[in-house]
Amino acid sequence: MSGIGGTMIDWRGLMTAGLHGLGLEPAVFWRLTPVELRIMLGAGEAGPPLTRARLAELAAAFPDVRKGESDGGYQRDAGPVDSA
Question: Cα–Cα distance between 11 and 49 in angstroms, integer?
Fold first, then answer.
């Protein structure tokens, strides 16, 4: 289990609900956002809108990191590439 800000995510429960309860294919399940999954599971409202303060908190917790050759990632994932 992992989570943000001390909130644990019940992956086993979510996967059981999505794959078995809703009959989703694994690829479809993993493309869903948490809000989409909650709506599909019938959970009331999606929650409060994202505020600037919450966005800043998330940006600080998960900063963009430029990927290198060894990461096998696309070089422009985290912003512009230096043209030098």
Answer: 24
Residue length of the chain: 84
Q: Which of 23, 46, 51, 16 is nearest to 33 (CA)?
A: 46
**pTM score:** 0.43
Contact 66, 58 (CB under 8 A): no
Residue 76: what are its φ and ψ, rounded to 5°? -100, 15
* pLDDT band per the 50, 70, 90 thresholds, residue 52: very high
Residue 70 DSSP one-character state: G
Question: Residues near 79 by Cβ (< 8 Å), separated by ≥ 6?
Answer: 64, 66
Which ranges of 1-84 would DSSP assign to H, the alpha helix?
A: 11-15, 26-31, 34-40, 52-61
